[in-house]
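Exercise: predict the fold of this chain.
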Amino acid sequence: MKTTLRYELVEGRYSTPEPSLRMTCPEGTSYKLVMAELHKLTSKVYLAAERLAGGQYGWSPEPKLREDGTAAGRVRIELDKGTPEEIALAEIVLRNCMPA
């Protein structure tokens, strides 16, 4: 299945920066396939975070399905402190999960 990934830095629930990957699947993709793709992407983010950040942050990537019925969702990283260094490292981790 052809999915599109886009890096985003959005404002989180506590007005903190929230790096994320926005994933879009072809229109008409079933809910189960969209969720499977989101979980696959979340696994990639977990592994990349461990490899590139070495567990120095307590990051927990979270998948979230769009609630408007579109075949899309995102995987976000909730940051510990939201420092510029942490944001930059999270961006490296997320971009490492995107196709070349």
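Check your answer against the key: The chain has a mean pLDDT of 90.
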